[in-house]
Write a structure and sequence with these properties.
With 167 residues, the protein is an all-alpha fold. It folds into two domains: 87 residues, no CATH class; 38 residues. The chain has five helices and no strands. The radius of gyration is 29 Å and the shape is extended. The protein starts with 37 loop residues before the first helix and ends in a 7-residue tail after the last helix. The model has no long low-confidence stretch (mean pLDDT 89).
Amino acid sequence: PLEMSAKKPVPFLRQVVPVRKKVHRDPRFDDLSGEYKPEIFMKTYSFLEGIKKQEKEMVQKQLKKCRDAEQKEKLQQLLNRMTQQEQAQKKQQKLRERELSLKRQQRELAKQGKKPFFLKKSEKRKLELAEKYAELKRSGKLESFLTKKRKRNAIKDKRRLPPQKNL
């Protein structure tokens, strides 16, 4: 920086060398990064699934060997988080595949000359729920799921009721 005397008053409009400000850009919202396509992303980073599987096995082995209670608790939490992430990814993949199959059907119908029909969000949700029930029925966990759901709904209903005064 330029040295200036402290005795002289500083001019009102001082001539300063302009410094070019560095522009930070977020690749999530920037057009230069291209468009996000989950299918391409999954193909590109598919090698990570193998690495995650190895890490999960390693954590399981450590959990079996571990004697310390605190360390065991941490490893168990890590293992739970890994399994939950894996399940969420599978669920997302199923949803993506279902949407792709619906799009393919619509394209086929459009090729035949029929007018395309797009499902509403509520209809998609109903189809998803029906598929979930079918899956639970196949695995034999439907009854336990329904009892839990009934209990949850009963608790919600009790909360909504006005408080009763005991006289």
